[in-house]
Amino acid sequence: MRVYLPSTLPALARVVTLGEFGPAPLTGYAVTPALIEWYVSGDTEELEYVALTEAARASLRMLAADRADGVEVVARRVVIAAEVPDEAVSMGADLEERARVRLAASVPLVKIAAVHVDDPSAAEDVEAAIAALPAADRGDDDARFTLDGAEAHELMWYATQEISDLLG
Q1: Averages of pLDDT over each 10 residues, the chain, 168 residues
Q2: DSSP string covering the chain, please?
Q3: How many CB atoms lie within 10 A of CB 63?
Q4: pLDDT at 91
């Protein structure tokens, strides 16, 4: 099963250093039966894009959490796409979490298929989205519009052999 794991550039660097994405348990996003049922008209590619988008939203929250903890991070969302055995994935039944999955084990680097990262030109909108998250969570429509501005940027695709260049 293809699982999209939210990350940050420092966390991706740790994956490369440690040879795995972890520690478990991990939260990811995937094409689940609940997502298929909710998005009945979509094909597999569209459903994978929905899961990727959910992971990118979670990456934005990781960036905000790192900043709140005083960690200096570059304003670029990161999503790691990995192939994991179906039996390693558990899914919730809550419709609010229709694409969310949980992994009970770390993901070895060799199971990573690709990495999706914001282009540096998205940094200004991602910065604004990080700042707008608390207000958006309180229901502020202007803040939600700011989050949409970051989501308007497509994540760039990187092959696994390009990760070191991406981090360099």
Answers
A1: 96 95 94 82 85 95 92 92 93 77 95 96 96 95 95 95 91
A2: -EEEEEE-HHHHHHHHHHTEE-SSSEEEEE--HHHHHHTTT--HHHHHHHHHHHHHHHHHHHHHHHHHTT----S--EEEEEE--GGGEEE---GGGTTEEEESS-EEGGGEEEEEE--GGGHHHHHHHHHHHHHHHTT-HHHHHHHHHHHTSPPEEEEGGGHHHHH-
A3: 27
A4: 86
pLDDT score at 94: 65
Spatial separation of the C-alpha atoms in residues 29 and 58, rounded to whole Å: 10
Instruction: Output the six-digit token pair for 63.
Output: 């960036």
Residue pair 3/82 in contact by the 8 Å Cβ criterion: yes
Q: Look up tokens 């030109």; give the residue.
A: 121
